Request: fold
Amino acid sequence: MEAFLARYRNVTVLALALFAQLLLLGYQVKGDKDVRLIRVWAVTSITPVARLLHSGHQFVTGFWGRYVWLYGAGRQNEQLRGELDRLRLENQSLRNAVGAASRLEILASYRQSIASQTLIAEVIGTGANPNSRVVFLDKGSGAGVKPGMAVITAVGIVGKVQAVFPGSSLVLLISDMHSGVGVLLESSRVHGVLKGTGLNQAKIDYVPSEEKVSVGEKVYTSGEDRVYPKGLLVGTVAAVQPGKDFQEITLRPGASLNRLEEVLVVIAGVHEELPETLPRPQAPTEILAAPPREPGKDLLGTAPQAPAVSSGAEPYMPQTDADKLKKRYQDLGRAQGHSFGEGLPGSKPPDFNLGLNVPAGRPAGATKPPAGEPSPPAATTSDPAVASPPAQAKTPPPAPVPPPEAPREDPPPQTRTPAPAPGPKNGQPAGERPASSTEQQQRPPAPRPPDR
Amino acid sequence: MQASVKQLLEVDINRMRPLVAVAVVMAALLLQVFLPLLHSYANLVDLPLLITIYLALLRRNPLAGLSIGAAIGLVQDGLSHQPVGLFGIIKTLIGYFSSSLTTVIEVESLTARVVLVCGFYLVHQFSFWTMQRFLLVQQADFAGTRTLLLALVNGLVALLLYRLLDRFREKT
Reply:
């Protein structure tokens, strides 16, 4: 055995070494474990030296590159400076492009939000006279620009077109001393005239001293100057000084008039209401007591009409003067056997001067409708707005009845009639308010008013 | 006759001091870790393998050769992500057979060194691929042409490296 080992010693040791390492491999692979000891020793013995080597290499290469190998550094420096200048210019150009795109985006968005038809134009220059506040636009008569057109931006009006050339136009800014704009204060709705001062600010004239104007209040165009459509933002009140008859109000224009770049030329202006979010003036209104009425008659001299309801609801009472007048015409038509809306053009209308001869105890509203006219439906609901008018509508005294040609312009808010519909709708005559489904159930079908 | 030749060779053997040998091994492992940071082409040269072959040829003793190979291989395993023992087994074999060949052929000539390095490099790569593929059941490809070219590259690098290392040898 000893002779065998002595003869094959090398091979035996090799086999043992291989076997041991194979066992090591098998231990790691099968057990999914790691021989951490060997790795720690290897890494711990190598990495400190590697770190030193890396530091030394960095030092040597840094020293060599920074202090020794400077061939071509000057030329490279000049080249890099040129590159830096070029990149700075390019950077500035790109920043300008981004800014212009952002401004145009805002302008286009604002252009879609307003009703007026506008044209985007760029400011290409200012006036030669340092005292005048004018700018030149790149759009002229060729693009449809005409003198007197308003020029605006998304943050405020700019001015109006004063002169037009084939490819450009001259705009008089609102800050020019010769400029004037009809304006409207936001909260008080007081009208005034904006005049330029020749500086970056303007002033508002003709605002009475008793009106309360606060700093920071927004100012809109009133549309009275026939140049700027109503409802465009002009700016904000910068300062208010009391005056003898009128206040001295300084306005800070919303648009930066000395940094204009892109503007909108109003080709076709449309007046707009001021934003809905603005607080409406709620002036306290004093309501007088009702005057004594003639028994059995209303202010029109007619007997009160009985409700056309058969249920236990309260009788229908015309609430507005227009309703009363309409009711009177209806009763006159019924009394004379006239059916509104059925005669040919030129046919004889009922005589509205005859008056009503309604028997006592029989309300006009209870007259039998002519044949072919539907009878009023019975009220089935108890809508307080119709069947039971609110106390405000009952208690206020009826205002003096204006003639039909001059209806009252500012009825009390509680009884304000909505604007008439633009045209007949669902068989309803023009000029009548479209009734809701509840109202249609409770109110009798209204015949057409007589043709006037 | 064979014994006399061996005695003659032993007389001319130029030994390397143990400390220098350890330093050379450490330097080889260090450069194998560090040089690829400077240039990716440094990965093409297997310095631990070249040092294993060199020291094994220098010792002319199979036991010493396999010990050197096992030690270098295990440290190289420790610095890699492979299971410990993969490089150890291969370099143990390389060290053993390198030392064994010194009794058969003259390894001091440059041509013989280049041929030996190329051959052992191919054996090393093939053994590595075989063990990785069949023993560890890992996905691995063996690119024959590339391995052949790398064997030549390592042979040429070995020429220069061995010339450099010969300067640290001392006559005993």
